[in-house]
Specification:
It contains 2 helices and 2 strands, in the order ββαα. With about 100 residues, it is mainly α. The chain has a domain of about 35 residues. It has a two-stranded antiparallel sheet. The model has no long low-confidence stretch (mean pLDDT about 80).
Length: about 100
C-alpha cells in the first residue's frame, strides 16, 4: 500500500488516500490471461460449428452447373455458354493492344 503524510505550517497532519496495487507473477498473469482467452475461443468455436453444421442439416447445396441459368436472371436471358472462336479472340487481342 502506498500513502503519503504531510504537515501544514500549523503542524497539522494530512493523510493522503491509500493506493494499493497487486503485482502478479508471470504464472499468475498467464492464469488470468487463460481465464479470458479460453471462453472467447470457445464462443468462436461454437459459432464456427453452427456456421458449418446448420447449412448441412438444412440440406443447402451449392451446386454450380456450367450453362445453367442464374437465379437472379430473368428466364428469357440465359447465360451464354459457347466458347469464343479463335478468330474473335484474335480480334479482341488486336483491339486491346496499345499503339506505340
Amino acid at each position: 500500500m502506498f500513502s503519503a503524510i504531510g504537515y501544514t505550517s500549523d503542524n497539522l497532519v494530512l493523510h493522503s488516500a491509500q493506493i494499493s496495487r497487486v503485482l502478479l507473477t508471470s504464472e499468475d498473469a498467464w492464469a488470468e490471461t487463460r481465464q479470458m482467452i479460453i471462453p472467447i475461443l470457445g464462443v468462436v468455436g461454437v459459432v464456427t460449428l453452427i456456421g458449418l453444421v446448420v447449412p448441412f442439416l438444412l440440406g443447402r447445396k451449392k451446386d454450380f452447373k456450367i450453362g445453367a441459368e442464374a437465379r437472379f436472371r430473368a428466364a428469357d436471358s440465359p447465360l451464354p455458354v459457347e466458347s469464343p472462336s479463335e478468330e474473335s479472340l484474335n480480334r479482341l487481342l488486336e483491339e486491346s493492344r496499345f499503339e506505340e
